[in-house]
TrEMBL record:
Pfam families: NLPC_P60
Keywords: Hydrolase, Protease, Signal, Thiol protease
Family recorded in the similarity comment: Belongs to the peptidase C40 family.
Domain NlpC/P60: 43-165
Taxonomic superkingdom: Bacteria
Name used for this protein in its record: C40 family peptidase
PROSITE patterns from the UniProt entry: NLPC_P60, PROKAR_LIPOPROTEIN
Classification of source organism: Bacteria, Pseudomonadati, Bacteroidota, Sphingobacteriia, Sphingobacteriales
Gene3D superfamilies in the cross-refs: endopeptidase domain like (from Nostoc punctiforme)
Coiled-coil zones: none
Length: 165
């Protein structure tokens, strides 16, 4: 009886020790998309850009929209370039793509433009590069949002990147 009791308590002790030691050795395998997006925002060089994005985040998408009641991607890019960098852009994303000096994706800097084609070969969407593979855009489904450029949906659709002339 004493042997079985000792064995029982030893088993419990062993189970608890193994459980506690395994909890302590766990490391997070990845950071969340939201945390990475927050890091991208925190690492912006331009504080006015940071404030601009914060003021617009969550504004719903509206085709042809150009104010806080709703905005589309090209309108958002137009306002951001005008208000933050003092540069003018055409109104439509495909015309905006014609106004940039082409640059490779690997060489993008804060404020550079990224053009996408989700519906074929023509440019139909635009975003603004931030840093660390994140960009800001007016998403048709989520409104103005900081998003991960490495997502396959974006990688497959990128057609042009560059800086405004």
């Amino acid at each position: 009886m004493i042997k079985s009791r000792v064995l029982f308590f030893f088993s419990i002790f062993l189970i608890i020790t193994v459980s506690l030691s395994s909890c302590g050795s766990r490391k997070p395998t990845s950071t969340t998309k939201a945390a990475r997006a927050a890091d991208a925002m925190a690492n912006l060089k331009s504080k006015p850009l940071y404030r601009f994005i914060n003021n617009w985040t969550g504004v719903r998408y509206k085709f042809g929209g150009l104010d806080k009641s709703g905005i589309d991607c090209s309108g958002f890019a137009l306002l951001l370039q005008r208000d933050i960098y003092g540069k003018s852009l055409p109104r439509r994303s495909r015309d905006q793509a014609d106004a940039i000096k082409k640059k490779s994706l690997a060489n993008l800097k804060e404020g550079d433009l990224i053009f996408f084609s989700f519906g074929g070969r023509e440019v139909d969407h635009v975003g603004i590069y931030l840093n660390n593979d994140f960009f800001v855009h007016a998403s048709t489904s989520r409104g103005v949002i900081v998003d991960d450029l490495t997502l396959p949906v974006y990688q497959k659709a990128i057609v042009k990147t560059g800086t405004l002339n």
